[in-house]
Design goal:
about 300 residues, alpha/beta, Rossmann fold, nine-stranded mixed sheet, 12 helices, elongated
């Protein structure tokens, strides 16, 4: 059995084309499992139209509940709640409650219970591009990092059971808990950015996070021709920071047309300039993933 590898595609911000590129990778890599780790606002299913094979509840962190029949109104819980989630009448505000359990531990009357609750749903599905794990987190629910970890573990189990060598992860935006849960233990990271000040700022933030995990980091630029000066600056930054620059994708209205038809751009047409650029980025990524354990990345991507 081949060693399982995981490729994470992230951007640091939304709207850079991360899911569009990941969908192309899902189309081009033939033997893989797809994970949509953007559990707060999943959208890969809009392109892949999955047929759900398995649906499970996600049990996350619970909320405190005070039994007024046992409560002596000592006030310790309210005084020690960092999030001000307990009112003067000793009623818990479930929106403010972060589930830290301090009140449960400190209550002398054992009047506070803490029951785990359903925070969302996760799915195992079949798509035209392969098997996919994805999820939907409930409104205003926390524990998105735990849900991402669950999806990855389920994908890993399925991949090992079916001898599938690769998991492609469409990562969440930002640098918070779900991104950390996505990065931990992956084989390589591909950051996709855009030539805007906000794109560069968020690329730098997610790069700083990724470097802390000592994982090979690749970089590509989407819509590079919208600002060629900034694109050149991004390339210089990548070189100075030991990022492996693997390509640029031109702006193309056909990407939107492809999405309207529920297709990735390469599936829509393989002859467009954007499609050819995506293919070249995929090809370099594939070579890197194939050689990740004995890697000399700069030789591979030349």
């Amino acid at each position: 059995m081949k060693k399982l590898k995981e490729l994470l595609v992230i951007s640091g911000k939304g709207g850079t084309g991360k899911t569009s590129l990941t969908a192309c990778f899902a189309y081009l890599f033939k033997n893989k499992i797809i994970v949509d780790a953007d559990v707060d606002a999943a959208d890969m299913h809009l392109l892949l139209k999955p047929k759900i094979l398995k649906k499970e509840k996600f049990i996350g962190g619970g909320k405190a509940f005070i039994n007024n029949n046992l409560c002596s109104s000592c006030g310790l819980c309210s005084q020690n709640c960092t999030f001000d989630a307990i009112s003067e009448n000793f009623i818990v505000d479930t929106i403010s409650c972060e589930g830290c359990k301090v009140c449960v531990e400190i209550c002398p009357e054992m009047a506070i219970s803490f029951e785990p609750q359903v925070c969302g749903t996760w799915f195992y599905s079949k798509t035209r591009m392969g098997e996919m794990f994805h999820a939907k987190l409930g409104i205003a629910e926390e524990n998105s990092g735990l849900l991402v970890s669950l999806l990855r573990k389920e994908a890993q189990k399925k991949a090992m059971a079916k001898d599938i060598p690769l998991i492609i992860i469409d990562g969440p935006p930002g640098i918070g808990c779900p991104v950390i849960a996505s990065i931990t233990g992956v084989s390589a990271i591909l950051i996709i950015t855009e030539p805007t000040q906000s794109g560069i700022h968020d690329m730098k933030r997610v790069l700083k996070l990724g470097k802390g995990f000592n994982i090979p980091i690749m970089l590509c630029i989407n819509k590079y021709d919208l600002n060629k000066k900034l694109s050149s600056e991004i390339k210089i930054f990548a070189k100075k920071n030991n990022m492996h620059f693997i390509g640029s994708i031109p702006y193309d209205d056909n990407i939107t047309k492809a999405m309207i038809q529920e297709k990735c751009i390469y599936e829509f047409s393989s002859t467009l300039p954007a499609s050819k650029a995506v293919y070249n980025i995929w090809n370099k990524t594939k070579k890197i993933m194939d050689n990740i354990n004995n890697i000399k990345i700069m030789e591979i991507i030349k």
